[in-house]
Amino acid sequence: MTADSETTTAPAQSAGWRGKFAGFALALSIFAILWFAAAAVGTKLGLWDWQFGLGVMTITWGPLLLMVAAGISILAVILSLIKSPRKQAFMLAFAALLISGLAFGRVAAFGAGAARLPPLHDIQTDWSNPIQPSDALFTEREATGALNPVQDAPVIDPAADGRWPGMGGRLVSEVQEEAEFDTATHKSPKETPYPLIAPLVTAAAPDVAYTAALATVEARGWSVVLAEPESGLIDATEESFWFGFKDDIMIRVRSEGEGSRIDIRSTSRVGLSDLGANAKRVRDLLDEIETRLGKGA
To answer: Burial, 212: exposed, middle or buried (Cβ in 10 Å; 0-12, 13-18, 19+)?
Structure first.
């Protein structure tokens, strides 16, 4: 092939303004993904508060940005196919549509899952004898501006009625029980939003159970605020990778019969709904402690 033929062929492969439009669609789709990351990282770094980072940037503006990116990507795909050359423009447009479409689908699925979960942010194994944070944990919560109080019999904020009609003012303990097992429909735990949460009763002695619980907390890399073997209490805090949200975990180990009983409470410092994070944390922690005790035996 001669140099003249190469010069003639190169411009023929360019889609002109259609290729540039497809490139813009791809750039916008990538920007939309980075937008969510920026919202989370900016919140964690303290550049803005969580209400703006999560409520405005992520929940309000994020889906709109993805919709715009997906719409422009669809238009770019159509424009890339109307005439030759098609390859360059179509590849860029299709990549843009793939990125924005998958991201929007994930956000939509996340929203649907969130709507299925009750507006809870405080979960524990025994509401008849609730665990209370230590003075040290209370002090830390106040220092970070925790908005959610830790109460013996908390009720759901009336503001929840806007998204979860009829939930405002209800006891958290009742709603948690319904989420674990619906007595009206007799659904199994696998069919309900939350896993079944109950105290762990073990044949291990209290000191052995306490050691296993503390070792499990430390293995997870949580910040231990209080560890009192004599009282059987452990207070710890976990910080989320994204946004930097802090949740508090309270563990109580006491004797029961010839063995011991382990109760756990997990609560978020801010937010109306934890999206099931606390329930999952309590269930996973109980399972891990039980496994550790089994290995020790």
So the answer is: buried
Respond yes or no on whether the N-terminal peptide bond of residue 118 is cis (omega within 30° of 0): no
Cα–Cα nearest to 251, from 212, 277, 221, 219: 212
Helices (H), 160-234: 172-180, 206-219
* Residue 121: strand, helix, or coil: coil
Residue 89 Ramachandran class (φ > 0 left, ψ -120 to 50 alpha, else beta): alpha
The answer to whether residues 207 and 134 touch, using CB atoms and an 8 Å cutoff, is: no
Buried b (16+ CB within 10 A) or exposed e, 46-85: eeeebeebbeebbeeebbebbeebbebbbebbebbeeeeb
The closest of 206, 219, 216, 217 to 262, measured between CA atoms, is 206
What is the pLDDT at residue 5? 45
- Calculate mean pLDDT across residues 69-88: 92
CA distance 258 to 69: 62
- Say which CATH topology domain 122-296 has: Alpha-D-Glucose-1,6-Bisphosphate; Chain A, domain 4 (3.30.530)
Q: What is the pLDDT of residue 13?
A: 64
pLDDT at 113: 79
pLDDT tens across 82-116, in order? 888 888 999 999 999 999 999 999 998 888 878 78
Q: What is the pTM of this model?
A: 0.82
Distances (CA, A) of 224 to 4, 146, 215, 236: 73, 18, 11, 4
pLDDT digits (tens, 9 = 90+) for 223-245: 999 999 999 999 999 999 989 99
